[in-house]
């Protein structure tokens, strides 16, 4: 009888939205930090295509988080629960990645922001912008190019992108508990 009760209790173990989000936010954040470090060491951090692969890490982490949540909640996850998990997971992963990038830009490779600004200038020249327009744009961009802005912008950028991804992935993966069970 005691074993049957233990099995029933084990089957009914549920995990919370926040616990799932923290778990997978830490995992995705760590993966993004490692990937960013690899890109930086290979001098490929300015490659937009390679940098955008981190979005795939967010999607994969979200899918794994949703599967984990559903597995520990009787196979069910509402759209709102998925949106909460995905958004909080993205915030945590974004903060971890942004803290790493802040440290990297502030203390390790202090020239990376200058390289990014030079790349922006070349892009604007290729688009045929005048020198006055380029100077004005570069002056404005310079105000937002410090390590502190990397921290703030990176965190909120991750949050925004993660929220958009969570809207879509939650809609696909939701499995709402029946009302009359």
Give the topology, please:
Elements (H helix, E strand, L loop, with lengths): L1 H10 L5 H25 L6 H4 L2 H18 L7 H30 L3 H15 L4 H13 L3 H27 L8
Task: Give a written overview of the molecule.
This protein is mainly alpha-helical. It is built from eight helices and no strands. The protein has helices spanning 2-11, 17-41, 48-51, 54-71, 79-108, 112-126, 131-143, 147-173. The protein starts with a helix and ends in an 8-residue tail after the last helix.
Question: Summary?
Answer:
The chain has 181 residues and is an all-alpha fold. It has helices at 2-11, 17-41, 48-51, 54-71, 79-108, 112-126, 131-143, 147-173.
- State the major sheet: none
Percent strand equals under 5%
Rough shape? elongated
Query: What does the average pLDDT come to?
Result: 88
Count the beta strands.
0
Order of helix and strand elements from N to C terminus: HHHHHHHH
Radius of gyration, in Å, reads: 21 Å
The low-confidence runs, each spanning 5 or more residues with pLDDT under 50, are 4-9
Q: What are the key terms here?
A:
181 residues, 78% helix, elongated
């Amino acid at each position: 009888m005691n074993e049957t009760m233990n099995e029933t209790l084990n089957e009914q173990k549920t995990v919370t939205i926040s616990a799932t989000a923290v778990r997978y936010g830490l995992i995705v954040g760590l993966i993004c930090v490692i990937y960013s470090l690899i890109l930086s060491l290979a001098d490929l951090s300015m490659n937009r295509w390679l940098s955008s692969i981190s979005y795939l890490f967010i999607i994969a982490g979200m899918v794994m988080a949703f599967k984990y949540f559903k597995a520990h909640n009787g196979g069910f996850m509402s759209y709102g629960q998925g949106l909460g998990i995905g958004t909080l997971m993205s915030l945590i992963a974004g903060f971890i990645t942004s803290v790493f990038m802040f440290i990297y830009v502030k203390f390790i490779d202090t020239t990376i922001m200058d390289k990014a600004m030079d790349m922006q200038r070349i892009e604007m020249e290729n688009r045929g912008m005048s020198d006055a327009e380029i100077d004005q744009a570069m002056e404005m961009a310079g105000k937002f190019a410090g390590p502190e802005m990397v921290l703030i912008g990176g965190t909120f950028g991750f949050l925004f992108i993660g929220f958009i991804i969570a809207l879509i992935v939650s809609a696909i993966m939701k499995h709402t508990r029946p009302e009359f069970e």
